[in-house]
Amino acid sequence: MKDIIIIGAGAAGLAAAVTAADTAPEADILLVEALEKVGKKILATGNGKCNLTNAGIALSDYHTRSPETLGRLLEQMPTQRTLAFFSALGLACMEDSAGRVYPYARQASMVLDVLRLAVELRKGIEVRCGCRVEGIRSTEKGFQLTSETGERLCARRVILTTGGRAAPKQGSDGTGYALAQSLGHSCTPLAPALVPLKCRGKWFKTLKGLRVLCTAQLYQGKKCLGSQQGEVQFTDYGLSGIPIFQLSCLLTAENEIALDLVPEYALDRLREDFLLRQRRSPGESVEDSLLGLLPKRLQFVLLREAGIDPALPVGQLSRRELERLASLYKHWRIPVWETQGWQQAQVTLGGVPLGEIGADFASKKCAGLYLAGEILDVTGACGGYNLHWAWCSGMEAGRAAAGRKRRHNP
């Protein structure tokens, strides 16, 4: 009988293990992981550099169906909590101009290295990889877990940190939701988040690989659901890049992305610029006359979208045609088909409702159970917010589970 079993050795699970061991050094803790190694998803974060938190943690950076509850939880999770946790492990960190915090070495592997050192050597926590938990039930003495091979594990308390459904190759395949539901919890509808979007259009193969600094807005009919500015990447299937990832969290039905490809230009100024170019060189082709604002591939596509022949002398265009083209530069609407799915999603939208856990991340449905990380209905924006939630919720759950063990089992 273990004192604590932690199911899932990702960011939240590793933070929970370290904190539980610090809280109750005498506790017998087991960390189980379905994959052959712990922390695989950590290695992929921040393009391999691991953006592990952000200097400006705020409720507005998260999506949840329980904003009031999340706001209260975040109050006990300032950035300093994450920084202090890693400082104690020996990890030096640095903050960039946008408030994103990285390991000083700019290597995600360094983050995982200090966590593994703490768990496996300094804290003496037992780690069992290649062990997928497929069943769990509450007993009079605690919990009985069943692995896919039929092995049974027993614990007085369990911390569920299995992650969500995003990036299943990195260990998050959604099995944790079934485990939570078998113990009385519910689950909100799930959707891929921070994910590229498949869009409808015939130009994407022409624009593949092009990156443009612009403003992207998500529309449902005439309603603007959100706006993001930054580098948008065109792919052969649609759109990618951080602004698109952020907007993917707001998807509903029948959406369009509107791109302002020249955000520094007001519409009136852009119209006047086009007219000035026309007056200056009326005999030049439209393509040559407008050269200098956008990449040539993108300019060609927009001309075709506006129904304008790029080879036509610009002097032959009417004022209305130039104004229509300027409007397209400022508000090019692209229909969204669907997301790229779970394989390319960074995180999961939805999960176990926050109303089903307490302030210490203890389950309100099943005594002795704790939940932390992506399995809960909390989704952060790009910029270190999701890892911050994982570390801090894992720490809270680990401390509470071990603290309860210490009080009842001196």
What this model shows, in words?
The chain has 410 residues and is of the alpha+beta class. It is built from 13 helices and 20 strands. It has helices at residues 11-23, 40-44, 67-75, 79-88, 108-122, 175-182, 204-207, 242-248, 267-280, 286-289, 296-305, 319-330, 385-408; strands spanning 2-7, 29-33, 53-54, 62-63, 93-95, 100-103, 126-129, 133-138, 143-147, 152-160, 191-193, 197-199, 211-220, 223-234, 238-240, 255-260, 332-339, 347-349, 369-371, 379-380. A hairpin with a 4-residue loop joins strand 9 (143-147) and strand 10 (152-160). The radius of gyration is 25 Å and the shape is elongated. The two termini are 16 Å apart. Mean pLDDT is 96; it is low at 405-410.
Quick overview:
The chain is an alpha+beta fold and 410 residues long. It contains 13 helices and 20 strands.
Helical stretch tally: 13
Determine the mean pLDDT.
Answer: 96
**What is the global morphology?**
elongated
Number of strands: 20
Strand fraction equals 15-25%
The major beta sheet can be summarized as: 7 strands, mixed
Low-confidence runs of at least 5 consecutive residues = 405-410
Radius of gyration: 25 Å
Q: Portion of residues in helices?
A: 25-40%
End-to-end span in angstroms?
16 Å
Q: Would you tell me the structural class of the helices and strands?
A: alpha+beta
Task: Explain the layout of strands and helices.
Layout: E1 2-7, H1 11-23, E2 29-33, H2 40-44, E3 53-54, E4 62-63, H3 67-75, H4 79-88, E5 93-95, E6 100-103, H5 108-122, E7 126-129, E8 133-138, E9 143-147, E10 152-160, H6 175-182, E11 191-193, E12 197-199, H7 204-207, E13 211-220, E14 223-234, E15 238-240, H8 242-248, E16 255-260, H9 267-280, H10 286-289, H11 296-305, H12 319-330, E17 332-339, E18 347-349, E19 369-371, E20 379-380, H13 385-408
Parallel strand pairs: 1-2, 1-10, 2-7, 10-19
Antiparallel strand pairs: 3-6, 4-20, 5-6, 8-9, 9-10, 11-18, 12-15, 12-17, 13-14, 13-16, 14-15, 16-17
Helix pairs in contact: 1-5, 1-13, 9-12
